[in-house]
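agent> step 3/5: call structure_predict on target 'C2H2-type domain-containing protein' (Thermothielavioides terrestris).
agent> reason: downstream docking stage needs a structural representation; sequence fetched in step 2, passing through unchanged.
tool.input:
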Amino acid sequence: MEDRPPGVSSRKWRYQIRPERCPICGKGHPFKAELNKHIASRHPERAAEYKVSTARRICEWCGRSYARKDHLTRHLTRKHGRQKTRTRPARAARGGGFAR
Ligand SMILES: [Zn+2]
Ligand SMILES: [Zn+2]
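tool.output (status=ok):
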């Protein structure tokens, strides 16, 4: 791996050198997770070989399936006007006058 110049964060550096290369087509990715996503979507027939999960996300409203969660989320938002998951639980506003 190339040396990281001073002043460049390791995250930024990985985005520049993209050290995780796809073993099938050679495309570089900054992180292993990105590479796995790439394999699942571009080379699903080889995914098992590299222990990459290709479990597809199914839209519970119309049954369309997507290889990537973010694609399903986008579909849900655009076509059905909703989010499948609420990532952040609603939290009471701080300083709302309820002194303890
Ligand atoms: Zn590839
Ligand atoms: Zn749908």
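agent> step 4/5: record observation. The chain has two domains: 8-54, 55-85.
agent> proceeding.
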